[in-house]
Amino acid sequence: MRKLLPFPLLSLFLWLTWLLLNGFSWGHGLLGLVLAVVLPLGTRPFWPNVPHLRNFPKLVRFVLVVHWDIVTANLAVARLILGSPRKLRPAFVELPLELEDDFAITLLASTISLTPGTVSADVSEDRRTLLIHALDMDDEAELVAQIKQRYERPLKEIFEC
Amino acid sequence: MTLAVLVLLPFVGAALPLLADRLRASRTVLALSAALMPALALVLLIAPAGLVFDGQTVHAALPWVPSLGLALSFRLDGLALLFALLVLGIGLLVILYARYYLSAQEKAGRFFAFLLLFMGAMLGVVTSDNLLLLVLFWELTSLSSFLLIGFWSHQSAARKGARMALTVTGMGGLALLAGVLLIGQIVGSYSLGDALASGDLIRASELYPLILGLVLLGVFTKSAQFPFHFWLPHAMAAPTPVSAYLHSATMVKAGVFLLARFYPMLAGTNLWFDVVTLAGMATLLWGAAVALFQHDLKGLLAYSTISHLGLITLLFGLNSELAAVAAVFHIINHATFKASLFMAAGIIDHETGTRDMRRINGLWKYMPYTAVLAMVASAAMAGVPLLNGFLSKEMFFAETLESSRLGAMSWVLPLGATLGGVFSVAYSARFIHDVFFNGEPVNLPKFPPHEPPRYMKVPVEILVALCVAVGVLPSITVAGLLAVAAAATLGGELPEYHLAVWHGLNLPLMMSVVALVGGVLVYSSRNWLFRQYARLPEINANLIFERRIQGLARGAAALSNFLRNGSLQSYAAWLLTLVALVLLVHLSPAVLDGQRALLPLDGVSLLAGVMLVVAALITAILHRHRMTAIMSMSVVGLVVSLAFVRLSAPDLALTQLSVEIVTLLLLMLAMYFLPVRTRMESGWPRILRDLLLSVIIGGGVGVMAFAMMTSDFQSISGYFLENAKPGGGGTNVVNVILVDFRGFDTFGEITVLGIAAMGIYAMLRDLDLLSAPSDSLGRPWARDAHPLVLVTISRPLLPLALLISVYIFLRGHNLPGGGFIAGLITSVALLLQYVASGVAWVHRRMPGDYHPVVAVGLLLAGITGVASWFFGHPFLTSTFDYLYWPLVGKFEVASAMLFDIGVFLTVVGATLLMLANLGKLSLLDDKAKEGA
Amino acid sequence: MLEIALPIGFGLIVVALVLNLYRLLRGPTLPDRALALDTMYINAIALIVLYGIANDSKLYFEAGMLIALIGFVSTVAVAKYMTRGDIIE
Amino acid sequence: MDTLVEFLVSAAILVGGVFALVGSFGLARLPDFYLRLHGPTKASTLGVGGTIFASLLFFSWQEQALQLQELLIVLFLFITAPVSAHMLAKAAMHRQLRRREDTRGRPWKQ
Amino acid sequence: MEHLIIAPILIPAFAGMLLLLEVRERQPLRRFTGMLSVLALLPVAWLLYQQAAGGEIQVYRLGDWAAPFGIVLVLDKLSALMVLLCTVLAVPALLYACRADDKRGANFHALFQLQLMGINGAFLTGDLFNLFVFFEVLLIASYGLALHGRGPARVRAGIHYVVLNLIGSALFLVALGLVYGTTGTLNMADFAVKVNQLDGGALELARVAGLLMWVVFGLKAALFPLYFWLPATYANATAGVAALFAIMTKVGVYAVARVYGLAFEQGALAGLGRDALWIMALLTLLLASIGVLGARRLGEMVAYTVVMSVGTLMAGLAWSSPESFGAMLYYLIHTTLVSGGLFLLADLVARGRGKLGDQLVAGPAPAGRAGLGLLFFIGAVAVIGLPPLSGFMGKVALLQTVPAPLYWLFLLGGGLLALVGLSRAGSTLFWRATGDGAERRLDRPRLLATVLLLAAAPVLSIWAEPVLEATVAVAAQWAQPQLYIDAVLGGGA
Amino acid sequence: MEAMVAVMIAVLVGTGVYLVLRARTFPVILGITLLSYGVNLFVFISGRLALDQPPIAGAGPSTDPLPQALVLTAIVIGFAMTAFLVVLALRGQGETGTDHVDGQRDDGGEA
Ligand code: NA
Ligand code: NA
Q: What is this structure's pTM?
């Protein structure tokens, strides 16, 4: 099983994608399954080290949180953009990373970018710090704490521990 | 048929000396091998000659190219016989002479081969019974003489002389060809017999002056008539046997031969008289006068030859039958004495090592025997009684007195003739006196000179003997031959004439006497004359000609380089100007007569259109800021894709979008090695010109587009819409067209892609390029080559993109998609791996040579096509069926899909072959930097 | 309702696109232009999706999906060019 | 079409359009690159998201079956869009683009 | 046997693909494959020619779709002749390349085969868009081949060649858009029928389409003022490639002949662009012969003779009588083979002279000077049109069938200029030699390839009658477009 | 709509022509690309314009599919040609040391 499905999450993801694309039918279910197995196997060499999913429910919860944040942040940022640019308080913020896994770090960076108002600008060479640009920052510590609490910690629980 | 064989014998014979040379045969054997075929030809000539003397004309014909009217047909009449005898007879003597003349180091085999080639060509000219064949042999004489004159190719003079002769006579030959073709048009046949019989027709034709001009151009160039005489003296750079043969006895006679041959066809008009006579007269006088002043022995003889050819030409021009007879007679006589004189000159050159008469003096003492022979021949040339030259010259004088065409000016002709005679005597006297007497030799390279080898003199002896025999007993020796030759020339009855040494005391004899006495007087005042001559500016025709040719070549190069100036901008402007002209001239408002209803224009489309226009204009305006231009061009691409969406072309939208991305990758790869900015280089005139072209062509194409869109038309497309599903098994008609109806186009298209990839690979291999060590702002490049976020995201995208590719591929037959787009998506996903993780990383995980992928893709497409043969169908016939599987249900299997997989693989292979190798380029550069 | 909402939606997005083009032309820096192009691609997705709704057709979905999936590769290439010069190394 | 559905679809379209415009407006108007970088995030999240939601509703209603295909667009965009932003930010920092003077913190050297 | 007609396309195509599969660059294997392919093409081309000579026009329906809906290949006498000619040229050209330059870059053999595929496809197709596709196949392959090897001059010429042809391709597409947009078809025969049913604006657009095609084909054929790319491109290509390129200009000539003969010989647009082609052809002839005279390298000189021949041919074509067309075809065969041979010879000479190459300045004598000199003499005589070789026959045929004073003047005058130029060149290269050249001895296979091509001059002369009969027969069929149209569209197929 | 498409084509062809006539390989590449866009659109519209009539059989009225297939082929070929030209430009840069279309060095000399 391990050999056939080295990355079960990926396979699941691919299978669902296939079904989303084609709609469900037995034929596509089968074909999608085949593809979901074959494609990760075929691209196996491109995956040197991938973290294993530890906690699926938390992942679901994380996704929902992020979506919620996207919506609310969008509203907030829209106000900022439409308002006077002078009032903006831009800042570069360095976020010390607790995450160690590349994949998790990337997910964190992406999440930060997806939620309006912050963009992850760089990852330090030692992968200990994430540079973030914020559109309008009130207090650096607060922002860091918020990110750590809402995104980094869940990610750590989902992929690492 | 003997005749045809006879003419072709020398050509065969040309191989023999070459063969002998190969076998390292002695020079005697070489000469014998060369002489074999001409001798045989001469023997074979005996039988037909008999018939000719009986008044018959012998014919032989082999078909060759009837479509062109070209046949290997020969005729032997008196004129042809006369010339055949000269060609073969003198040819044999020249071979014998050359055996001794050529030194041991020289490539005698080649020499004799060329000589025989020439002999064959000459024989062909004189015996042709077909006008085209005549021209063919005519040009062959030019070509073979080119080889002979240039035989001593290490000498600049020989090369130049050869080229000049070829150029001048070649030009004449081309003119003659044109003339002959016109004659053929009038006569309706290229048979010489037909043409000769159609003289009235030709002379009456309005093309006659043109024909005459063209033919005479051939004649005058070949026979070195004024003003085309200048090449002949420079042909003297040839070995003397060649001069003796070509430039006295044969080739230059081809011109006057043609006058004789075409006499019944072209002569008899005033135009003929005026042109031919005047050219002859001018040549006669010019040649005779200049000959006297030559210090080169062969130069003197060459100008004398020019002069005598002028005399013959003049005779033909007189439009009198007797004059024509005299001309033929003088041809014979001149051939004999001039050939012997050249040979004598060759002997002297051979024995003294020089041909400069200022150094050669008093040879009488050292080689009396040769001196006698040369003196007799010179006397013949001077027209001394009891020698052959006297007889024909007498006839010539007589004929000049007969003509009344010039009316009150008729005295000019005899006066000119006499004057020519005077100079002729003078230069003959110089040849005798200045060479054999006139004190002691001066500083000869070879001293003392001796008599030449015994057999080297034999040819001279024979020819001199002929001069004397004809001169003394013309009626026994030459009368018969002259009669048949003259009769053939005139093409009818011969006029009354008598060949005798003594015609009584008459005006012609007086003219001879005047010439003799005058000549001696002129010669005796030579020192004064030479001084006057030396004051004249020296005219070296060779130099002038060479300079002219060089100037011509320079001019040609200048013109060529002006047009082909090496500037792509100029070439492209020519091309586009042509297009603009087509549009300007042919695009009338009439094209806008369409009645088709217009589609409404909505705001979104309008704004999108404006965006495209703006982006395109910005691309053009800001093209010097390269990155900006690339970005604005991407906008154009995006809007074009959106336009395809809007205009019901989802397949095209997908294709355009994916191509767009790959193209941008490509450009970014290239930009690493290219300057980021373009300098302002075009001046305003050019920019305005280019703007004009852009406006005309862009506007024209736009107008045509509008005209097309607004007019209705009938097309074959209904067929595709109807048959896509039942016949092709798919509902996406575009895809069915691509893989089925017009699968062959697609086969070609993927081949193009594959070839492009191959060509790109070939260009990239071992290409050294310097990449920029810093960015456009002068900063060193960033350190982070493989950004973490990019790397991490790129990896799951690979299986995802592959999944999407499969999806796009499978649905292609029925819905937008297909192998091509799927292939591009896969390629982009793979390229992303390269971008994110680098070449080395990727190549550790997958083979880096994409040639086989392209090959397999193309082969798959090809084999799918071929497979239909086994079902009895043509290439690329597709088949499909519906299969039922439990659970899965009904699904379609089409051979076209296999073809589409071929497309997919080709696209993937080709794209990666191009871009991955382009990406690798920097690795080489890095290595180079490390090495440095 | 939809007849009103759709044109307005189209209008909003097209105006967004025009603003993107403005930024692309205006620059002033290369990253600005690249960002503008990237945004245009994204707005184009929205446009295509709306077009699908307007025409009640799902045929245009793949075009949007294609941009979403691989459109960013262009931006990545340009960004990599700006930082490293060499996009494949 | 059900009025409620139609209302929801219309609303989603308008939300999508507005956020797309706001994002692009920010891109056009904000004073430095790093600020402008925030604009497209709107477009790629709520802008596209709104239209996709509209599309989902619309086609699900039309075909009376759940149509989730369009979700893939959002999904893919969520995967890829942050990478663009990240890479562009790195490019901007490398080029040491001018930032608003009152920006706190400093970009990293590349 | 019915599939034989596609073999001239598929044999080189598959050979090219297999060569591409051979990744280890085993040169002998590659050479073997390439030679095998061209040698297999020889009997195929000959058989096809024999079939076509029977008079029946064969139509091959690709994908089993009838014209005008599917693409058809059409084998008539003209296309069969061109395919045969291409094959005959390809064998020595490849032989030479195998002994000379094929290793100087990657993928030579695959490119060579696919080039043949493109050329043969262009000759055989009966569909205008498919003609475009095969044009692109042959062009992209020719780009690769033209750039084979190294050197700035080659790249410079390559850029010019490629860019001009890219513009040409764009123009061709515009023309095809107009063709489809007015007549609604892409099949050549169908187009010929439909174009005569047009009127009004559509007819005007079709006229522009036709004229744009002439421009495009004129660019391929290298007519004035579109020939400027040719001398540098050909002169800088490696010898085998240049020899093969001798047929490339003829593809342009063929394309004009094909489309003109079908659609514009008679009917609504009869004589379309004929006068312009005539004038351009004459100017080409004149300027190219001036170019021959002014050339500074032998390769360039030969390239200019190729342009000269294009002028000669196009004028013969523009005269548009069956007789002149027959004569033109004879000349086409002659000039293709002989100029191919001269390109090889130029390379032999250049190699023999070492650093000086084929520059027309005095230098060391190449090995085998006498033999090479003789070959040059033969080639020059043939190219100039002097008797007794094929050029003379061809020129006489053309002069007889194109009785236009200006043409006579330019053809004969051009011959004279070429005579002056070539005699100077020959004299400089073979007579003015100083000392011995770079190579000790001539390479036999290279010499053989050269001799094989130049042998065309005497062979075509000796057997001028059968060849002329054949080309006249080709012309007779060409002059009856209805035969072609009926074969393609007829029988309700 | 037709007029706007015609204007688009005109501008694309016009700018393409202008850029093709520049002296450096890079603008020529841009020009060829723009020209291709314009020409592809031109071929495309030879089937006339139609809104929301994708050429899917059995799905209502359909626009002319043939030009679409032709343009697809043309796009692919155009891509191949552009790629070749780009690499050729690099080769030119590498061998002549300049990106001038005639290989003229900026100092006026020839490589
Ligand atoms: Na003397
Ligand atoms: Na690289």
A: 0.95
